[in-house]
Amino acid sequence: DARNGNIDNLNKDILRINEAITKMQRLLNELLELSRIGRMMNPPEDVPFSEIVREALELVDGQLQTGQIKVVIGDDLPSVYVDRSRLVQVVQNLVDNAAKFMKDQEKPRIEIGIDQIDGDTAFFVRDNGTGIEPEYFERVFGLFNKLDTNSEGTGVGLALVKRIVEVHGGKIWVQSDGLGKGSTFYFTLVKQSNNKAHHNEKQTRI
Fold it and tell me: Count of alpha carbons within 13 Å of 63, Cβ hemisphere only?
């Protein structure tokens, strides 16, 4: 294109190369992050989960604004004793994932809160997006597994989330009634909060 003097095609070529480089850099960065989890963690700290949610939402605010997505946050969120920055990554990735799969939802909505499941406090990120078929519930957490190959992202995000949750001694799973019915990602944590007043001096499995 350069030899032929086709400037329009040349500009398109350069744009395509830049986009490929950006995507590859993001992929490498996320893989590096995945490899670090468990080996390089920050000292755990006692932090209200609401603060983690707020920090995560600030990081994806542009995407939420563009998609006109309403976010509802529960008012009964506990404190957690965790690697703060890693937990921000968890919430950020789950919200980002929910936002990407709203499709043609007229009133896109994401809810963040807690449920009591089998005696444990499970945190959740719930959306009213496209939903997931049951046969893909486990697959979505696999490395490079993307249910929609045309969607944005590298296929590393949910694998990263799963690894962080597991390093904190917890587990993560997804529930959905199928396509068009939205999805709910649940996760638990087992590190304990040092804030005894918040937990009435009882250790709560979270």
Answer: 20
